[in-house]
Design brief:
Layout (H helix, E strand, L loop, with lengths): L7 H6 L19 E4 L6 H13 L6 E4 L5 E2 L2 E2 L6 E10 L2 E10 L1
Parallel strand pairs: 1-2
Antiparallel strand pairs: 2-6, 3-4, 5-6
């Protein structure tokens, strides 16, 4: 988890979770940062994801996705604070530079 980007104290507070965020016990409650590899999600699944994100707004700070989420006025549809930020280019297994979409409160 710590590649020198976090202090020991910061790393000790980080918790990585993997699972089905849409499941009742998906473990997304209280999440501050969410990464979703939604590159091949159908529109209906992205809509369910947006609904979940709207319920996390009390704790959520930033969402990173591989495909864009639906927006209304620069904010993720159905949320109050998830504003679109400029994408960042990240190295993936299939390419050196892939645009990751950022939405932050």
């Amino acid at each position: 988890l710590n590649l020198g980007l976090l202090t020991h104290e910061e790393a000790s507070r980080a918790e990585l979770r993997q699972g089905d965020a849409l499941a009742a016990d998906g473990g997304s409650a209280g999440a501050t940062h969410v990464y979703v590899a939604n590159l091949c999600f159908p529109a209906e699944l992205n809509d369910r994801l947006v609904s979940l994100l709207s319920h996390l707004e009390g704790s959520l700070r930033c969402v990173m996705t591989l495909s864009s989420l639906p927006l209304e006025g620069g904010v993720v549809r159905g949320t109050r604070c998830l504003r679109e930020a400029p994408p960042r280019y990240v190295e993936m297994t299939w390419t050196k530079r892939f645009p990751v979409q950022y939405y932050c409160c």
